[in-house]
Target: Polyketide cyclase
Amino acid sequence: MPSRARLDEFIAAVVSGDHAGAIERFYTEDASMQENAAAPRVGRDVLVAHERAVLERVKSVTSTCVTSIVEGDHVAIHWVFEFTYHSGKTGRFDEVALQEWRGDRVFRERFFYDPSKPT
Model:
């Protein structure tokens, strides 16, 4: 079960822009991530590689935590991600991440957002 302080450390890492580093430091080796109803990606190395590939496609990303809740081993985080692509276009994702933690690390995560809404 994560402490509030541990969750705040994770959120601070993401907000600072260290997305791949946050996965390396805060996820279990066998962690999974799932986008909406897509099949989950499994394994921390796979998750880090995917995150780095996403970040290579953008010029910058600003991450904002709107709110977060810790309830035992379960965490909910409301994120807003604002992307600037290399083309100069921008996109915004308003997302809720539901996480299951094992001790002080994320074991399972599922993201909920409207995929048609990068504005």
Notes: Residues 4-112 form a domain with the Nuclear Transport Factor 2; Chain: A, fold (CATH 3.10.450.50). Helices lie at 4-15, 19-26, 44-56. The first helix runs from residue 4 to 15. The two ends are 35 Å apart (CA to CA).
